[in-house]
From TrEMBL:
Protein name from the UniProt record: F-ATPase gamma subunit
InterPro entries reported in the protein's UniProt record: ATP_synth_F1_ATPase_gsu, ATP_synth_F1_gsu, ATP_synth_F1_gsu_CS
Membrane topology per record: Peripheral membrane protein
Gene Ontology molecular function terms on file: proton-transporting ATP synthase activity, rotational mechanism
Amino acid sequence: MVSAAKYSRAERELRAVRPIGDGAKSFYERAEVSPPSEKPDKLIVAVTSDRGLCGAVHTQVARQIRAEIAADPERTRVICIGDKSRAILQRLFGKNIIQSAVAAAPKLSVYDSLDSEVIQSYMEFSTAALLFYALKEGACSEQSSRMTAMDNASKNAGEMIDKLTLTFNRTRQAVITRELIEIISGAAALD
């Protein structure tokens, strides 16, 4: 019952998020934005802001990502959310950044007045929306799996109880039968 309640809540939250995720997916499909032909083994999402003056946060994020890329530069790709991470990483690892794939899409010109700033803003929003949508889908799936596991555990426990009850009843019946046989044999021996 607890799992079912948690699943119900997760499903309600997913229903609220689904239009955002579907809208972002629909945009990419209609604009025929395709992923890079080579699939990275490792994808890093760098989340920073567009503005500075917040200490070494951007530097630390970029430093960590540079270390990750340096470990396997050929198979690691980066999506940058925010100008600061893109600016820091562009100089050394520009070929690893795949965030500018929307601007190269052939049907993107169908959408009026899209300049690079609008595309960048929408990419940041849609990437975050798709990640949020994926997280909610995952949470809902987790609760569904947990509910199914609990249901199966309850069913298995019920079957085990039924088998043990049957075994107990058979054993009890065998003991009663053996005692009756002993009583009847003892009575017959006295005659």
